[in-house]
Structures are given as structure tokens and as C-alpha cells.
Design a protein that fits this description.
Elements: H1 2-47, E1 49-53, E2 67-72, H2 79-87, E3 91-97, E4 100-102, H3 108-111, E5 115-118, E6 125-128, H4 133-148, E7 154-158, H5 162-165, H6 169-186, E8 189-192, H7 195-203, E9 214-218, E10 222-225, E11 230-233, H8 236-251, E12 255-261, H9 265-278, E13 281-285
Parallel strand pairs: 1-2, 2-3, 3-7, 7-8, 8-9, 9-12, 12-13
Antiparallel strand pairs: 4-6, 5-6, 10-11
Helix pairs in contact: 4-6
Length: 291
């Protein structure tokens, strides 16, 4: 009986030790699996491109998982679809056109009487009077909130260049009103172009963070030949001007984004190297469509 009890105790101890070892091994396996999973997640995240601009896409978008930040026109995407983009790890900005009116928008007829003049090279657009209280109210109280309601992370604001075309005090003031209110509404705002307005705003002592978190500039290193919609390298003076402008904006705390149009692999490499060194985010497209 005593030997039996000892054997029983030995068996129980052996069982406890075996269970403990098994638990340890399982825990190690789980830890290894978790580590592998984490490593894979990190690897996947690191393989993502920083920035993709797809404002020409309507309703569907492929390869969005390859980008950390994407620009879309949220008018053409449902809240459900935008949620899918965000679940995939994308930060989503919606395009919003504040300085021009497009004839394909459902609100075109309501504001066409406020237009200022034709937008060169863009037949579907006309510049609009941003000093108009009616236009300001529409952008600030209706259009921007409707886009944000879909769950986007911020706004990609286009055509602050209206001030370049119409250098009037009322246009400057109108843009300032709109941009400040959009910043309050969206928190994250990227201004596309608008270098003349932004430069004057900063020169006048304006806090860049009050109107934008980021600045996007198209065609720093490249240029578009509009006659045949082909691409070429930008001239030296243009390149120098925009480099200086973006450097000033970065010094004020803005994130810098660049869109370039080229199919030249050597030029692409040069652009990427320049941006990587300065922590600028760049999207290079071989098409004007941005789809």
C-alpha cells in the first residue's frame, strides 16, 4: 500500500511536471506565433507606400491596401466603403474643391452665377468667387460636413490657386475664412497648391496650423505639356522655387506631400530619393486621371 501510494504520488508528480512542460511549450509556441504574426504585421506595414492619390476613382478602388494615406473623392464612395479602407490601415482624406466649380457636380446650377472665369486646361471647371457668403456657407456648413460624416480622416483642399488668378483682397479674405473653418471641422487638412496664398498668409503673420496640417504641391520636379498631355522635367527655376516654398512650410510644422507626373524611371528615382531624405510623402503618377 505504501509503495502504491508512493507510485501514485510519483505518477501525480510526473503528470503535473508533464502538464507544466506542455503548458510551457504551448506558451512558447503561442509566443513564437504571436512574434511571427507581429513580425509579419510590421513587415506588411513597412511595405506599404506612404501616399496614394486617387481622386479620379469613382465607386471602386484597387490596391488601396498598399498605401498608408489615400486621397479619394468621398462624394463617390459610401461610408461603408470608406470604413473598409480604414480597416485596411489607410488614413483617408477626401478631395474638396473650394476655389473652382465643376460642371459635373450636382450643385453646379446652384452656384454657377458666382463663377469668375475659365480654368485653363480644365474644361470642366471655372473659378468661383470665394468671397461669396453663399459659397462659403455651402462649403463650410454643407459640403465639408457631408464628407466628414462618411468617416474620412481629413480633407484635401483644392484650388486655393484662385488667389493666384484673382489677386484681390476679397479673394484672399474669403479663402482665409473657408480654410480656417475647414481646419476646425476636419482637424486634418492638406492644401493642394495655393502657394501664392499660403506664402502671403505666412508673410502676414498667419499661423499655418490654423489653416492646414499639410501642404501638397504638384509638379515640383516635373511639368505637363498640355498640348499633348505628355510629361517632362521641370525647369530649374520652377524646381528651385517650389523646393524653397515647401521647405518654409515644413519649417512651420506642416507635413509635405508631392504629386509628380512622369514615366521616366531615372527621374522617379531622383524624386523619391529627395523626398525620402526630407521625410516628404510623394505619389508619382503616369497619368493625369489619378484613378
Amino acid at each position: 500500500m505504501r509503495v502504491g501510494k508512493i507510485l501514485k504520488k510519483i505518477c501525480i508528480c510526473a503528470l503535473i511536471i508533464a502538464l507544466a512542460m506542455s503548458f510551457g511549450n504551448n506558451k512558447k509556441m503561442a509566443s513564437d506565433n504571436n512574434h511571427d504574426s507581429l513580425a509579419q504585421t510590421i513587415k506588411t506595414a513597412s511595405n506599404k507606400k506612404e501616399y496614394g492619390v486617387f481622386i479620379g476613382a469613382t465607386g471602386s478602388l484597387k490596391n488601396y491596401k498598399n498605401y498608408k494615406t489615400i486621397i479619394i473623392d468621398a462624394q463617390y464612395f459610401s461610408a461603408k466603403k470608406i470604413k473598409t479602407f480604414k480597416k485596411a490601415g489607410c488614413k483617408v482624406y477626401s478631395y474638396i474643391n473650394v476655389g473652382a466649380l465643376e460642371n459635373f457636380r450636382d450643385y453646379y446650377d446652384d452656384y454657377k452665377n458666382l463663377t469668375l472665369g475659365q480654368y485653363e486646361n480644365w474644361d470642366e471647371e471655372v473659378f468661383i468667387d470665394v468671397s461669396s457668403k453663399k459659397w462659403q456657407k455651402f462649403i463650410i456648413d454643407k459640403l465639408a460636413p457631408s464628407l466628414m460624416k462618411k468617416g474620412v480622416d481629413g480633407l484635401f483642399v483644392d484650388n486655393a490657386d484662385v488667389y493666384y488668378e484673382y489677386k484681390q483682397k476679397k479673394i484672399y479674405k474669403g479663402l482665409k475664412v473657408i480654410l480656417k473653418k475647414l481646419k476646425l471641422e476636419a482637424h486634418n487638412v492638406i492644401i493642394n497648391g495655393g502657394d501664392v496664398f499660403v506664402s502671403k498668409y505666412m508673410k502676414n503673420g498667419g499661423n499655418l496650423n490654423d489653416i492646414a496640417t499639410g501642404i501638397n504641391q504638384e509638379s515640383v520636379f516635373t511639368k505637363i505639356n498640355w498640348e499633348n498631355e505628355s510629361f517632362a522635367a521641370a525647369d530649374k527655376d520652377s524646381r528651385k522655387y517650389f523646393k524653397r516654398y515647401l521647405k518654409k512650410c515644413a519649417a512651420k510644422g506642416a507635413d509635405i506631400y508631392i504629386i509628380e507626373y512622369t514615366k521616366n524611371s531615372k527621374l522617379k528615382k531622383k524624386i523619391k530619393k529627395y523626398c525620402m531624405k526630407r521625410d516628404y510623402k510623394v505619389y508619382i503618377s503616369g497619368s493625369l486621371e489619378l484613378t
